[in-house]
Description:
By secondary structure, this protein is mainly β. Strand 35 and strand 36 form a beta hairpin.
Amino acid sequence: MNLNYLLFIVFFFTYLTADAQNKGVIQGVARDKNTQELLFDGIVRVVGTDLAVKTDENGSYQLEVPTGTYNLTFSLATYEIITKYNIVVTSGNAQIVNFETSETETEIGEVVVTNSNATKADATDMVTPLSVQRLTTEEIKSNPGGNYDVSKVVQSLPGVGGSTGGAGRNDIIIRGGAPNENVYYLDGIEIPVLNHFQTQGSSGGAQGIINVSFIEELKLSSSAFDARYDNALASTFVIKQRQGNNQKFSGNIRASLTESAITLEGPLGKRTDFLAAGRFSYLDLLFKLIDLPIRPRYQDYQLKVSTRLNEKTTLTFIGLGAIDKFNFGATREASPENEYFRRSLPFIKQWNYTAGLTLKRLIKKGYINFALSRNMFNNQLDQFKDAQYDNEAFRNFGLQSQEIENKFRADLNKYVNKWKYSVGISAQYVKYNTNIYSKLNEGTLDSAGNTLTPPLEIRFKSAIEFFKFGAFAQLSRNFFSDKLLVSTGIRSDINTFTTTGMNPLNTISPRLSAAFKLTPKFELTASAGIYYKIPTYTVLGYRNDTNQLVNKSLNYIRSTHYVFGGQFLPNEALRITLEGFYKQYSNYPVSVTNGISLANQGQEYGAVGNEAVQSSGKGETYGFEVFIQQKLVKKLFYFVSYTYVRSKFSGTNGILLPSAWDNQHLLSGTMGYKFRKNWQLGAKYRLAGGVPYTPYNLTASQFAYPTTGNGVLDYANPNSERLKLFSQLDLRVDKTWNFKATSLAFFIDIQNILATKQQGTPYYTFKRTEDNNAFATTDGQPLKADGSNGIPLLLKNESATVTPTLGLIFQF
């Protein structure tokens, strides 16, 4: 918390040296999108002003402009004009703005440095011409309720929902698919862990780990994925990090009521630059202060070092890591809800890292990429009866596991005679280790204390290792003077673990997409494709009582996508899209024990992997989405999305039932307005239909609760109940002060300002005595091991918490 006081001191000191004519710097490079060649003599222009500059022989440019918010364009003869919106320039560190553009079939003519108000909304991508959304670093930073968290911000995009409809987790549900159906890439390196306190086998967690200051752009593809990405069924997130400031040492410090972060960047020589960051939370202190039983604490680190070995070769190192601890503590005021948290939920200790090297080599009419990386996720969960923490005699559950992946990827990308093609290969060496203990019941004793039935426990250790290989090809071209874009691809993946995993014909994944411009403002898009994903390691690593790996016979999960839509550009900065989608699943994992699809268990299937499953499930998701995006024009920007989605999966009985992600309705609207003197107001509204959930089996729950501290779900009636509709309004206010060589920004971000109740699945527990020292019973005697004299209680899982976050950002 002392960092806050430091920033106030810095503010008052820099205020004394404030300059009325403050200026900032915009710098970057321009490249050909298809060949990555540097573009010289292009014009970078500040829209609405006379400020413009040419790129030099290295494709670089630098502009000094008065502080404020601008739109920038890049233009060069024979190349498409590109616009970057909402570029916030301060007198602190420089704004790095890079341009990538493609040649057109029509000669644009000589480029002259003049004032121009021309802007153009985002067009389709040459590889994935539909189902693509983009977010810039400024859109992520200023997103109300986002609190600089990428995972929260993307939940405002069309087709994106949360697993419970609430705001407490960062589960990313794309068009009704599971969280683990998404893949995430950072500068070409896959990052399996995206959030703090991640659920193993999922992508959800409480807080994102990626530093927003590093991000240049995020691209979400919810269908028609580039064939270079494996294991994706629902979406691909491709995050491009910006280049560090290669002119001078600079950075920023951010401090708020919940966390502090520092980002540094600068040159390490003539050809090398770096970005480095660290973040530390003190949520545990805040929650203790406001008398909540949970005590989360996390920290994360991020690094990027890029060196230009020569004019054609760039070597980049990236690193990303996090450390998480989630404990519980006694509260000053006891309540059934607080006692449930303390006694029924596990402690969490996690750490993870991803480290990788990428080498990009420019060749004639294209480039080659090489990527070598390693990632590891260490997960530990501990649960003890009656909150007797660290007392092994009271242990109900324990999990220790590690997921380790070593990866190599290589791809060749060429652009010849208007044809763009890519081919590549990948290889992975995977290790998964787990050690699980779970007590299902205490057993029974006779009146003399002799054992009648022993305790029922699950204990197993498992260690597996295997290889995964993949190959792909992607081809695309524009026809008829850029009116028609056709893209096609194919990939196949194999592995050395599953029974049929070495047959590449089992995972042939063809895909085809097209976009046709009916008019300069309107285009139609369509795609069809087949995609495969290997089951999660937690499932593959399960061993039965005889130490056999019983899930080796599982098949790759298959999903077939069909998408049709259109895009309308009424003016240069306004974009309207409409898409309909249908996805058909097969080979989906189904529990052998209860016959329920894992998709219908959702988060209740704790991603532990302690049961046998079979590849017999089917499923389908379908719906449509509407998206309206207004880029920054005359101080206002906004986007609105609506999605209707149904998600249904079947178990062994073949009956399609609503999945754990069947929101049905998703509505989101975000706007921002730029006032004078660097004030900005933002608002975001989200609405989601309540998701289904499975009620408790009251008889089984009463018997199990004394041992496990949890109820037992009634899988005879899967997902027969549904949560209430979720809605939330967030507000954000930003103010920036610019000084001679530094800047200071203040923000207040208020989540759920209307104090709307948010509902989650209820908790099963037993009623406690008035003094909270024991369970109340029907006969006044101590609680029996079989729970027969307990008094069942269903706790409502509802909250109407208003969460204000105040913070400062000092840039230098």
